[in-house]
Amino acid sequence: MGIGILALGLFSLSLVGFADGTVAVWLPALDLAAASAAMVVAFVSKPRAVSVTTDLKGAVALSLVLVAAWVAALVTQMPGWITWLNFAFAFAYFFVSMGIAERKQRAWDGATTDEVLDELADQRRDRWSA
Q: What is the SS3 assignment for 12?
């Protein structure tokens, strides 16, 4: 859920970047692509008991792409507000992915694969019924 909320924020950042005349088009376009990828990561990823890192690859990749965009924005002297917001989103994605890893690891320690999948299915069912 955290990845999806961050994706909405990144989508908003890209829209503001497109509207601002002082920002080159490539940076908000990259933000829009990253927001779209984050939505895919947030809504398509499925819980797996095989590996804790399976669902994290997308969030960490988004974080690395946004760090690269931040460095490129610094080099090309983009306006400070969009440059540093890209930096903030990069580390927010990283911290959210580490939170996911810690939560899944804690839930899966000592449990069998069937127990983990049953628990995750129950959590998802509870979330949709609330």
A: helix
